[in-house]
Design brief:
about 160 residues; alpha+beta; Arc Repressor Mutant, subunit A; Dna Ligase, domain 1; three-stranded mixed β-sheet; two-stranded antiparallel sheet; 6 helices; globular
Amino acid sequence: MVILVSSNGNIFHLELEMRLTKRKVVATLRQHSYKLTPQRRVVIRTITSSQDHLTPTAIYEKVRQDHPNIGLVTIYRTLEILAKLELICELHAGGSCRSYTISAPGHHHHLICSNCGKVADFPTCELEEAQQSLSKRTGFRIDGHLLEFIGLCQACQKEIT
């Protein structure tokens, strides 16, 4: 666990090694009766072996090195299934481009470096009260939320100063 202290004294606990393994992803797919095709297996292996958030295009390029006949549609369909089962985490920063990584267990949010693209997960979420209040005020049924903080990681701050 890494502890970050912000300039205003807030403390963030970052869980770094709470990622799902390839074995757990495969078991979950089997449990939900999804076929484990060779194409799905290689996409899962690519995502679970990476520490980075990968775009569908980056996954496609990595997978094609060993499986040149795989299609980009297969990548998107596999990502859709993995996201539906909450096995991967979708990152929304950077316009319409999304990136994916294997999920950390439980509800979490992201810190994203606007310079190098590094992403850190943090599990602290104190939005439940605001979510309930907003729902009550608007009559809107809120099913979930996404929160991403964008700024500079410690390494990029040091480079700039």
